[in-house]
Write a structure and sequence with these properties.
CATH class of the largest domain: Alpha Beta
Distance between the termini: 42 Å
Bound molecules: flavin-adenine dinucleotide
Number of strands: 27
Number of helices: 10
Strand order of the largest sheet: 3-2-1-7-20
Length: about 400
């Protein structure tokens, strides 16, 4: 009997790979192993709807239990793959048994980057990656008054917005000179600074956090190198993630900033694929090897790996896109803006509805849309078709950008 496909990690990417394998008509056994004790679920609500009680568990789970039985997906939760024995084509599970594979998919995701300062282990210092961590944050938010969020990236800002919406006092501490500096233009950073400040949060950039001070084991304040302290009975740390690449590295697979794969998402062992947050892949929209952390990337790579395993191998070239919801403002990003040399604005930032178009050597490489969903959809088309949009066309509201996308 064929060993089939084993998928390590039952998050967004692993789930998509399993479901897409069946949709592709794959008939062999599929085993989906996840170390968390839950059904595969979506992470985006964990910092927003779930904390705010607008989304319940049933909306967070990717599929109910029955789906896995119906699709003959052997879902193993609360268990961990501890080693890959490549010569024997099998993986070892923490619970004991070995599991053979014909194809192996590593969808191991990423884990929180830990804050390396004094006081980081005090009670009241929390992170947010998993459902269990979100449950804990939600519970602690009920009693906390002063929330300090360390990190002004997407997740930190989403938690800050949620906490502020719940009426808490919120301070965001960002080490860089502006919010989300690596991924958005200064105009977008300033917009978000004003948004959070306008809703009553305190935003401090160039904040060098040096200590979390406590009392009887509990966090009480966060101190900066400048000497300024901010009271805190809850400190949420959102300073990025580290890819879970150790399993691959220990098995002798190539790793860099994640598990290294080629344009077909294959690792240095052709029977092993890596997808989602853990995979460093060559991305045509970046013209470089990158590791992306988004639902789109996890889902599209899951589907691409499944197609390859089912015999429909194609280069991975999906347009990257991402969204973040903070208060009632939705930012949607298409493409990758790193390395841009010109940015123009369409729409009106004062009305909280505008898009920023990023160009590199006169070619459109990315678009950030704030409360302009139609711009985002058009942007994905423009990027996918490499449409010859100019900065002046992008900035001119009278130009119908949709008409510039190249049919293909
Ligand atoms: P993960 O979802 O991390 O899943 C990997 C799974 O593998 C984990 O459950 C892990 O425990 C398990 N695992 C790891 N090693 C092993 C092993 N050896 N054995 C068994 N299991 C293992 N993206 C957006 O596009 N928009 C958003 O608004 C957005 N909001 C987010 C909010 C939060 C709070 C977080 C944390 C993320 C958010 N993201 C958002 C990012 C998005 O959720 C991730 O990019 C996506 O979940 C990545 O999916 P993945 O399957 O690669 O990794």
């Amino acid at each position: 009997m064929a060993a089939g496909c084993v998928i390590v990690g039952a998050g967004q990417a692993g789930f998509e790979a399993a479901a897409a394998l069946r949709a592709e008509g794959y008939q062999e056994p599929i085993t989906l192993v996840g170390e968390e004790p839950h059904l595969p679920y979506q992470r985006p609500p964990l910092s927003k709807g779930y904390i705010l009680d607008t989304q319940g568990m049933d909306e967070i789970e990717l599929r109910p239990t029955q789906f896995f039985a119906d699709h003959r997906i052997d879902l193993v939760t609360n268990d961990r793959v501890t080693a890959i024995e490549r010569a024997e084509r099998r993986v070892r599970l923490a619970s004991g048994p070995a599991k053979s594979y014909d194809a192996l998919v590593l969808a191991c995701g990423a884990r929180n980057r830990l804050l390396p300062i004094d006081g980081a282990k005090l009670d009241g210092v929390v992170y947010l990656r998993t459902l269990d961590e979100s449950v804990a944050v939600k519970q602690r938010l009920k009693d906390a008054a002063d929330i300090v969020v360390i990190g002004g990236g997407f997740i930190g800002l989403e938690i800050a917005a949620s906490a502020r919406s719940l009426g808490k006092s919120v301070t965001v501490l960002e080490a860089q000179p502006r919010l989300m500096p690596r991924v958005v233009a200064p105009l977008v950073s300033s917009f978000y600074d004003a948004l959070h400040t306008g809703r009553g949060a305190t935003v401090v950039c160039e904040a060098s956090v040096c200590e979390i001070a406590g009392e009887r084991g509990r966090a009480r304040s966060v101190r900066l190198a400048s000497g300024v302290s901010y009271p805190a009975d809850l400190v949420v740390v959102g300073i990025g993630v580290v890819p879970n690449a150790e399993l691959a590295r220990d098995a002798g697979l190539e790793t860099g900033n994640g598990i290294a794969v080629d344009e077909y998402l294959q690792t240095s062992d052709a029977s092993i694929y890596a997808i989602g947050d853990c995979a460093e892949h060559p991305n045509p929209y970046a013209n470089a090897r990158v590791r992306l952390e988004s639902v789109q990337n996890a889902a599209d790579q899951g589907r691409a790996a499944a197609a390859a395993i089912a015999g429909r191998r194609a280069k991975y070239n999906a347009v990257p896109w991402f969204w973040t919801d903070q208060f009632d403002v939705r930012l949607q990003m298409a493409g990758l803006s790193q390395g841009y040399d010109e940015a123009v604005t369409r729409g009106n930032p004062d009305a909280q509805k505008f898009s920023v178009y990023y160009f590199k050597q006169a070619a459109l490489i990315a678009v950030d849309s704030i409360n302009r969903p139609a711009d985002h959809i058009v942007a994905r088309r423009l990027l996918a078709s490499h449409a010859p949009v100019t900065p002046s066309q992008a900035a001119d509201e009278t130009v119908n950008l949709k008409s510039l996308s190249v049919p293909g």
